[in-house]
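Support request from a user on the community tier.

User writes: "When I paste my C-alpha cells into the form, the page sometimes reloads and wipes my input. The last time it worked, I copied everything first. Here is what I submitted, just in case something in the input itself triggers the reload:"
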C-alpha cells in the first residue's frame, strides 16, 4: 500500500527504511526541509513498536509493544513537530507510578509533588525534603539535560549550557552521579526504602543491574520525568502517535509504502544511492538513505560484507542485545483489586522485588537463567485512558525479561506467565478471577510481529555504558554516520538509544541534511578521515588476526540466521557528515 499515491515516479531525495517512530520522525524533518521522501515499511503496519490493537477481547485496546511515554512527553524533538495538530492527544492516570514491595508497602510517584513527598516521607521522614531538593535541581537544568540527551554526540552547545548552569562543582557531581550504580545513589540520597525503590525500579526500564555503573542516571532521569511530565499515554492507543506522525508526513508531501520490505541498500562507488525491495523493485535516492532498523540488520543483511571494513565487522561481532521481553495483555472484568492503596490510581505499577531482589533478578538474566522472582512492570491502561476498555473494566498488561538463550520452550513461557500472574495475585487477591482473556507475546512472537525486535529485544541493543555514546552501536563517532557515504542509521541501535523520543531519527535527518549542504564535502572528508583511523586494519600490530566474520556473529548466540561472507576487500567508503 502507498500512502500519498499522488507523488510522481521520479526518484525521491531520500528513502527511509522502516516506518517505526524514528523513521517517521526522520522523514518528517526531511520533508520539512523540502525533501521528497519515501518510507518503505516491510510489514502491513505503520508505527513499528508504537502500535495498538484489539488482541484480547472486543472493546479492549492493547498497546502491542511500548505503552507509557515519559520520554515522548519531554522530547523537544516531538514537541517541535506539533503532533497535537495532527490528532494526537495525551492522557494521564491520577498517579504516575507505584512500586509495591514484597512486604506490601508501596511507594508512589505523582505529578503532585506533595503527594510524592508524602509517600517517600512515610518510609523515612527526611526523604521528603531530599526529594524536593532533587526536583528543584532538576527543574534548574531540565532543558539543558534534554537537549544534551537527544542531540547528536558530542552535544557541544547544550552540554556547555548545562555546565554553565551547574557550575564546575555541580557539573562534577552530576558526572559522578551519572556513573553511579542506582543502589549507591539511593543510599547516598535517601534513608528509607520508598524513595530508593522508585529510583531503582525506574532504572530497570533499561537493562542495567541496580549495581551496574550508569544505572543511577536512568533511574534519576525516569523518576524526574515522571514527576514533572508524568507517564502519559496517547488517547485511543499507542498507534495514535504513529498515526499523527504519518498524517503530518503525508500533509508535508511524504509517502509511506507498506508491504515494501527492503532487501538491499544499493551502492555506487561507496555511496548509498537507493534500495532494492524483495519484489525486485529499485527505488533510487538522490541524496540519502536512512535506515530505521537495528544495527545487525543493516550491517548483516541490507549491506554486503565486502562493502564494509573488516575492522568494523569485527567490532560489530561484539554488539550486545538487551534481554528478551515477555509481554502479557489482559482483558479484565474490573479494576485490579490491589491490597495497597497506592497502585489503585497509578498507570504504571512495578512489583515483584525490592532493591536486593532487582540485583538477584539481574544476576539471573546475566547468567542466562530464568529468574525465580521476576521484576514486573504492570500497566493499567484504562486507569490512564478510559477509552481503552468498557466502563468499569481494565485493559492491563505486564512485561518482564527472560534470558538470552538458544531456545525458550513453550513450557518455559507458560510457567513464567503463571509466575507473573501469581505474583500479581499475591498483591491483588482476586486478580486471576477477573481475567476474561489474555494475549501472550513471547520473545519469539514479539520478533515475529515486529521483525525489528530481534529475539524480543525492545531497546535496539543494551543500554549499558559500554554500548552508549561513541560506542553505540559499536566503536564510532556517536552519531548517525555509517561507513557508507549518504547512509545513516536512524533506529534505536544508534545514539541516544531506545525509548520513544525521536532522537535517533532526528539525528539521522540532521546528518543527511548536513551532508547535502554546502559544507557537506568538508564534513564528509573529516568524518571519513576519523572513521578510517577507527576502522583501518590492525592486523600488522595486533597479536590476534581478525577472524572470518559470519552473519551469525551479528545474531544472538545460538541464532545463526544465514551465512554472511566476509572479504579482505572490505574497505572504508566515503562516509557521512559529522552530525
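"...and here is what came back when it finally went through:"
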Amino acid at each position: 500500500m502507498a500512502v500519498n499515491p499522488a507523488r510522481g515516479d521520479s526518484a525521491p531525495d531520500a528513502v527511509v527504511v522502516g516506518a517505526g517512530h524514528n523513521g517517521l520522525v526522520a522523514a518528517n524533518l526531511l520533508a520539512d526541509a523540502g525533501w521528497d521522501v519515501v518510507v518503505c515499511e516491510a510489514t502491513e503496519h505503520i508505527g513499528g513498536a508504537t502500535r495498538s490493537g484489539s488482541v484480547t477481547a472486543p472493546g479492549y485496546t492493547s498497546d502491542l509493544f511500548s505503552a507509557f511515554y515519559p520520554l515522548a512527553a519531554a522530547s523537544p524533538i516531538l514537541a517541535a513537530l506539533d503532533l497535537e495538530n495532527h490528532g494526537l492527544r495525551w492522557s494521564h492516570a491520577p498517579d504516575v507510578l507505584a512500586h509495591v514491595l514484597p512486604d506490601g508497602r508501596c511507594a508512589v510517584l505523582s505529578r503532585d509533588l506533595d503527594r510524592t513527598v508524602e509517600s517517600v516521607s512515610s518510609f523515612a521522614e527526611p526523604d521528603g525534603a531530599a526529594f524536593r531538593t532533587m526536583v528543584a535541581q532538576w527543574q534548574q537544568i531540565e532543558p539543558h539535560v534534554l537537549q544534551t540527551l537527544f542531540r547528536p554526540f558530542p552535544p557541544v552547545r547544550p552540554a556547555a549550557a548545562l555546565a554553565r548552569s551547574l557550575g564546575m562543582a555541580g557539573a562534577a557531581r552530576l558526572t559522578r552521579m551519572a556513573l553511579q550504580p542506582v543502589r549507591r545513589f539511593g543510599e547516598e540520597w535517601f534513608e528509607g526504602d520508598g524513595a530508593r525503590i522508585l529510583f531503582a525500579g525506574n532504572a530497570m526500564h533499561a537493562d542495567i543491574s541496580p549495581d551496574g555503573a550508569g544505572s543511577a542516571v536512568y533511574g534519576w532521569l525516569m523518576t524526574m520525568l515522571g514527576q514533572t511530565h508524568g507517564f502519559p499515554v496517547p488517547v485511543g492507543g499507542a498507534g495514535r502517535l504513529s498515526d499523527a506522525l504519518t498524517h503530518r508526513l503525508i500533509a508535508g508531501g511524504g509517502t509511506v509504502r507498506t508491504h515494501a520490505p527492503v532487501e538491499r541498500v544499493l551502492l555506487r562507488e561507496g555511496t548509498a544511492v537507493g534500495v532494492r525491495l524483495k519484489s525486485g523493485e529499485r527505488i533510487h535516492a538522490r541524496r540519502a538513505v536512512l535506515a530505521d532498523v537495528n544495527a545487525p540488520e543493516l550491517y548483516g543483511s541490507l549491506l554486503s560484507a565486502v562493502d564494509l571494513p573488516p575492522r568494523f565487522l569485527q567490532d560489530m561481532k561484539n554488539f550486545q542485545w538487551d534481554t528478551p521481553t515477555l509481554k502479557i495483555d489482559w482483558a479484565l472484568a474490573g479494576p485490579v483489586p490491589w491490597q495497597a492503596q497506592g497502585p489503585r490510581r497509578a498507570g504504571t505499577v512495578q512489583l515483584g522485588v525490592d532493591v536486593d531482589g532487582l540485583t538477584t533478578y539481574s544476576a539471573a538474566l546475566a547468567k542466562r537463567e530464568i529468574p525465580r522472582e521476576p521484576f514486573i512492570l504492570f500497566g493499567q491502561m484504562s486507569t490512564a485512558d478510559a477509552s481503552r476498555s468498557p466502563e468499569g473494566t481494565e485493559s492491563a498488561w505486564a512485561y518482564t525479561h527472560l534470558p538470552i538463550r538458544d531456545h525458550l520452550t513453550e513450557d518455559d513461557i507458560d510457567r513464567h506467565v503463571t509466575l507473573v500472574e501469581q505474583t500479581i495475585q499475591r498483591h491483588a487477591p482476586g486478580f486471576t478471577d477477573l481475567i476474561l482473556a489474555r494475549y501472550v507475546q513471547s520473545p519469539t512472537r514479539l520478533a515475529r510481529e515486529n521483525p525489528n525486535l530481534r529475539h524480543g529485544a525492545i531497546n535496539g541493543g543494551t543500554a549499558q555504558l559500554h554500548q552508549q555514546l561513541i560506542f553505540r552501536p559499536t566503536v564510532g563517532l556517536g552519531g548517525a554516520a555509517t561507513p557508507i557515504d549518504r547512509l545513516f542509521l536512524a533506529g534505536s541501535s544508534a545514539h541516544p538509544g531506545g525509548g520513544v523520543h525521536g532522537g535517533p531519527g532526528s539525528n539521522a535527518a540532521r546528518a543527511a541534511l548536513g551532508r547535502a549542504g554546502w559544507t557537506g564535502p568538508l564534513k564528509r572528508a573529516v568524518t571519513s578521515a576519523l572513521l578510517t583511523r577507527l576502522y583501518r586494519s590492525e592486523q600488522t600490530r595486533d597479536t590476534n588476526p581478525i577472524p572470518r566474520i559470519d552473519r551469525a556473529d551479528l545474531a544472538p548466540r545460538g541464532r545463526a540466521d544465514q551465512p554472511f561472507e566476509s572479504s579482505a576487500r572490505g574497505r572504508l567508503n566515503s562516509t557521512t557528515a559529522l552530525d
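Agent notes: The reload is a front-end session timeout and is unrelated to the input. The chain has two domains: 2-48+242-317+461-554, 90-233+322-449. DSSP finds 18 helices and 20 strands in the chain. Escalated to web team.
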